[in-house]
């Protein structure tokens, strides 16, 4: 069990390593090359401007905030629902049963980018 504040810290490296792992396992060489070149390009762009230490702080802090936001937005529409085993319903009915809308408010609309209307999304 990880406290909610620490969970995104664990997700960032987990997702990074998972992306590399599955690219290699599934022999998606183009995907792997593009991922590696993207990361190299980001480093080449920011390290000269910020220095390596500041870049690492910026990069991992922004990834932490991004992960926290993603977890908050995606899980608030799915966790509260009673999800049961497949009852051979059509796809739309299953999706409607497994998601919910979150109360509309100025903050929720802004923070989630209107993903608080998950059923319509």
UniProtKB/TrEMBL annotation:
Membrane spanning residue stretches: 6-22, 29-49
GO BP, sorted A to Z: fatty acid biosynthetic process
InterPro entries named in the record: FA_desaturase_dom, Fatty_acid_desaturase
Segments forming domain Fatty acid desaturase: 10-121
Pfam families, sorted: FA_desaturase (PF00487)
Molecular function in Gene Ontology: oxidoreductase activity, acting on paired donors, with oxidation of a pair of donors resulting in the reduction of molecular oxygen to two molecules of water
Keyword Membrane: yes
Keywords: Fatty acid biosynthesis, Fatty acid metabolism, Lipid biosynthesis, Lipid metabolism, Membrane, Transmembrane, Transmembrane helix
PANTHER family with a match to the protein in the record: CYTOCHROME B5 HEME-BINDING DOMAIN-CONTAINING PROTEIN, FATTY ACID DESATURASE 2
Protein name: FADS1 desaturase
Gene designation: Fads1_2
